[in-house]
Amino acid sequence: MKVINRIKRNEEFANTVKKGRALKETPYIVHFLPNELSVCRVGLSVSKRIGNAVMRNCIKRQTRAMCDSLIDYSSHTIDVVIVIKEEFLNSDFESNKKVLNKLLSKIGITK
After folding, report:
1. Edge-to-edge strand order for the sheet containing 21-25?
2. Which member of 21, 59, 63, 94 has the greatest number of CB atoms within 10 A?
3. What distance in Å separates the CA atoms of residue 55 and residue 73, rounded to the nearest whole number?
4. Dihedral, 76, 102, 14, 3 alpha carbons, nearest 10
């Protein structure tokens, strides 16, 4: 995921969560809101309850890899915030990817 496709600022996270819509599935909550930019942006949120910093960064790397294979960044103009829950650790990579694909296809931003 390129830097231009990431949500970094706290205000942008808060705006997407407050004003946007949400879809929930077992390991994820996906908040989304249309933006005025020319690209799709994704932000990831992992709670400290899930593990230490090494574990959280590993989860974020895995989720970014899933997003890169599932999302077409250039053809959509939407902000997406993916909140990762503790149930993420109970499943393997492929099953988590299927659930994320299901949620992103409901939004309509998959390849």
Report:
1. 21-25, 28-34, 78-84, 41-46
2. 63
3. 26
4. -50
- Between CA 64 and CA 57 the distance in angstroms is 10
Q: Is the pTM of this model over 0.85?
A: yes
Instruction: At 40, give phi and psi (nearest 5°).
Output: -85, 140
Question: Which two tokens mark 98?
Answer: 């299927």
**HSE of 18, CA atoms in CB hemisphere, 13 A:** 6
Residues in the chain: 111
Q: C-alpha 77: how far from its chain's center? A: 15
Each residue's pLDDT tens digit, 10-56: 999 999 999 999 999 999 999 999 999 989 999 999 999 999 999 99
Tell me the residue type at 33.
L
CB 40 within 8 A of CB 76: yes
| Cβ atoms of 75 and 108 closer than 8 Å | no
